[in-house]
Automatic annotation (TrEMBL):
Residues 1-10 have a biased composition (Basic and acidic residues). Pfam families: Aa_trans. This is Amino acid transporter transmembrane domain-containing protein. It comes from Xylaria flabelliformis. Residues 52-442 form the Amino acid transporter transmembrane domain. Residues 1-26 are annotated as: Disordered. The keyword Protein transport does not apply. The keyword Membrane applies. Its main location: membrane. It is found in: Membrane. Keywords: Membrane, Transmembrane, Transmembrane helix.
Length: 464
């Protein structure tokens, strides 16, 4: 037991590599002698933000991960066909578990890494820190925006388009803002059980409703094992990026692990989460596509029929807003912690800390609302977010971490050959999704505006 404690304490010692880089870089925030009161507040703050065990980490990861991704799965299956959809869903899920494992290994080796951007500094210096930091902020803000859009769609469905979609977008943004205010992830974990029950019930209702509708119609579904003959490159890649979007949990893992009291337990969390995700996503995509066929809608809850889709959306409201808000909390923690890195203000337990935190979360939420109104269509908003950012955070950045930070010895040595191939595959997948997905997303957005399939930006039409 003593040896274990000694190893844990050694693992948590500051890494010389990261410490030297921080000391050589421009300091962000205030640097001055702290008073005794401030030191006490910093100790209280550190204790407050160090309460996550692996079970709570699993719950927080579920809150962050299992949300909008599942709602886009049936439409992705309809585009790719049952066989390709199932294979991609399982394969990309397993690769996401592995890449998340690599992220956790980096955190254990370099305990000072608090957010993904810090790992960018280790790999590429200040340039990597700023580049990945910007991607980190944009991706999480896009996620908050996608939840704002989904909330608007839900309220429109529940009220039979009872008000302008902009109004419902504002209502959604306000709810997301309020839920993002608690700064500690341990506090969010309490809501995770409601969140998980919400999405499981909503999906379950949709699967049962679509199955009953298919049985009552007496007609066979037009689902297919293969992609439709008319499926082009753009449509196929949009579907692939929607599956990639569903496995985006690695982006917040550094931030969550930074609050763990026993970081090495993270492996249990990512395996539990990964297996749950693969099962939920594959069953959701396959079953709803099987029952509805090629006419399946996105978000999938819209396929349940007029009445049951209202019930499903009502039950899904907690997951829409709880999962969306945690992304705002993570990006807020990154920005706030960077701005006040050497100040007691970063612990958000002083008047200045709370005022700056509330203003920051408000600014993030407003920007997210603007994104939701500018790209008011569900599939393409997920696709462009997935292509530009998740391709890196889930695939090619973890692969780079293995090669640059984790690997020991030659990449072609006998003990490294399998991992070299595996990380090479992750890197190639990430780059392909980045290039092909971004191109497809932009082409599809332009096409939809040209043919009038979607409402204009900042208008009262119904989002698609």
């Amino acid at each position: 037991m003593a040896d274990v404690k000694k190893k844990d304490s050694q693992a948590m010692e500051p890494s010389p590599m990261l410490s030297d880089q921080y000391s050589n870089e421009e300091t962000v925030g205030q640097v001055r002698e702290l008073t005794d009161v401030e030191k006490a507040r910093m100790q209280d703050g550190a204790a407050h933000f160090n309460r996550l065990g692996w079970k709570r980490l699993t719950v927080v990861l579920i809150v962050e991960a299992i949300a909008l991704g599942s709602l886009g799965m049936p439409a992705a299956f309809a585009t790719l066909g049952m066989i390709a959809g199932t294979i991609l869903c399982v394969l990309l899920g397993l690769l996401a578990i592995y890449s998340s494992y690599v992220v956790g290994q980096v955190k254990l080796k370099y305990p000072e890494v608090q957010h993904y951007a810090d790992a960018g500094r280790l790999m590429m210096g200040r340039f990597g820190y700023e580049l990945i930091g910007a991607m980190f902020v944009l991706q999480l803000t896009f996620l908050v925006g996608s939840h704002t859009l989904t909330g608007s769609i839900a309220f429109l469905n529940l009220t039979n388009n009872g008000a302008c979609s902009i109004i419902f977008g504002v209502v959604s943004a306000i709810i997301l803002f309020l839920l993002a205010l608690p700064p500690s992830f341990a506090e969010v974990a309490i809501l995770g059980y409601i969140d998980f029950a919400s999405i499981i019930l909503a999906i379950g209702i949709t699967i049962i409703a679509t199955g009953i509708q298919r049985t009552d119609s007496g007609m066979s579904s037009d689902w297919s094992a293969w992609p439709a003959p008319t499926t082009g490159f753009v449509e196929a890649f949009i579907a692939v990026t929607n599956i990639v979007f569903a496995y985006s949990f690695a982006i917040c893992q550094f931030s969550f692990m930074d609050e763990m009291h026993t970081p090495k337990d993270f492996v249990k969390s990512i395996w539990v989460l990964g297996i749950i995700e693969i099962i939920i996503y594959t069953l959701t995509g396959a079953l709803i596509y099987y029952f509805v066929g090629l006419e399946v809608k996105s978000p999938a809850l819209l396929s349940a029929g007029p009445l049951l889709s209202k019930i499903a959306f009502g039950i899904a409201l907690p997951v829409i807003f709880i999962s969306g808000s945690i992304n705002g909390t993570v990006v807020g923690r990154y920005i706030h912690g960077r701005a006040y890195r050497d100040s007691v203000t970063r612990f958000i337990n002083t008047p200045k800390g709370w005022i700056s935190w509330i203003l920051l979360i408000a600014a993030i939420t407003v920007i997210a609302w603007v994104i939701a109104e500018a790209i008011p269509f569900f599939e393409d908003l997920l696709a462009i977010s997935s292509s530009l950012f998740i391709s890196g955070f889930t695939f090619y950045f973890p692969a780079m971490m293995w090669f640059l930070l984790i690997r020991q010895g030659s990449p072609f040595s006998k003990e490294n050959l399998f991992y070299t191939a595996l990380n090479g595959l992750c890197f190639i997948i990430g780059i392909v999704v980045l290039v092909g997905g971004t191109y497809s997303s932009i082409k599809d957005i332009i096409h939809r505006y040209d043919v009038g399939e979607v409402r204009g930006a900042f208008s009262c039409g119904v989002p698609s």
